[in-house]
Fold these 2 entries.
Entry 1:
Amino acid sequence: MSYNNGTFITFEGGEGSGKSTQLKKIAHWLDGQGIDYITTREPGGAPSAEIIRKLLVEGDTDRWQPITEILLHYSARAEHIAHTIGPSLEAGRWVLCDRFADSTLAYQGYGHDFDTQTIAQIHQATVGKLIPDLTLVLDIPVHTGLERAGNRNQGEDRYERMGVDFHDRVRAGFLELAAKNSNRCQVINAEQTMDKVFSDIRTIIEDKLGSRLS
Ligand code: TMP
């Protein structure tokens, strides 16, 4: 499958960073630009992957062995790529994806302190050469994000319940990943107003992918 025809943008960040809201605003903006796009999310984004999502976002925080949890995320991702992301990119669409593989490194790697080399091997076997054209990392202090998220997610709060120390490691992980992959990652201060975050993201997309917008 050729992924190069399309444009793959991932939205990453901790709990309550506002990435889902911003993804919708960017989708609306792309409507005005006449861009053919889809919006999707992880874990999930395909019927089979949504079944796996429920196993991950509900229930006791310690219900899975760390390796099981990683394999479940990558199982969902394999389904998502095969059924949704891959065909859309092949057809030349833009794919706006709410979370992708950086979330596994941040949450399971940094958050749960799981060996990142092992995650990289699973990644290679599952995702191969599919790399986002642009990754937007929405950064927010943990307490602010958890407060926002707490008002929202009913029943899908398994990760929110993992404690502040866990989420501190996730946040630090995202920032380290963004620094290591500065060619594709941009960090946005998500504590700003919704409109300012939106205009920052729009500027980044125009700067990086402007030639594809016309
Ligand atoms: P969401 O709340 O953004 O829909 O994401 C669901 C939860 O899944 C969120 O708390 C982060 C977590 N997650 C991981 O731990 N690893 C992953 O690879 C992904 C995609 C999500």
Entry 2:
Amino acid sequence: MGALRPDGFHDLTTVYQAVGLYDEVTIERADALTVTVEGPGADLVPLDATNLAARAVVLLAERSGNDPRVAVHLRKGIPVAGGCAGGSADAAAALVGCDALWGALQTRDQLARCAAELGSDVPFSLHGGTALGTGRGERLTPVLGQGSYSWVLALSDLGLSTPAVYDELDRQRETGPVGVVSDPSEVLAALRSGDAVALGHALGNDLQPAALALAPSLRPLLEAARSAGALGAIVSGSGPTVAVLARDDGHGKALAAALERSGTCDGVRQASGPAPGARVVHA
Ligand code: C5P
């Protein structure tokens, strides 16, 4: 993680992997731009113009000369407000969905540029798979990897705010050494050889100390994952979700059960990666 930039973002180097948790986004022509939501945590999703999917519709309409009046319906399968990039996934889906609905025929690069304007993680939600992110996370290079990885996502109802975690990192750096951009080579080597054990060892997150300072209850969760035999466990992004790597799906099931029993989290989801990015399912 690099230093705070004049534009308020941090330069970073990150390895993204998309996992198989999905939201279903339906887009239809309508008299006005509306957003409706169903599924767990739906009440926490904004329905106004601040919704990232609504912002994606407006931006693509502007860029491609189309009418933004559509009804967007989100069926949430990605945990809401958990630091799982669910809002970014919805924005990426809205971009590809509107492109198809309007026949806007935007190139992948044009959609990626819109995605980057919407949020640092939106380009990756469009891309999917496994990728190296640089800049503020919006510049992507596909990662050559093999194999599939079994993850357990341990959820917390803590409501950590991403800017607050980055602010805490800046505050910690005022009194300690300022971290340099991390070297992802160990993670990339593990992915290249498809070695889950090596990946588990290599996992790390420069934002984790800041997330733990704001949410100390994530510490016993990380410890519970390790003592239950996880190959690795880290705070995912700015948290509060903790990503736990298992040897395979059977091991993942056992880890998920152990974490639920431990009482250190508010829910678990099992998912494997890499999974594809946003795509049109029914035209
Ligand atoms: O891009 P996104 O809207 O997801 O970013 C939310 C906030 O997270 C930013 O306003 C900024 O405070 C912080 N952030 C950052 N550096 C990044 C990505 C996000 O400081 N690379």
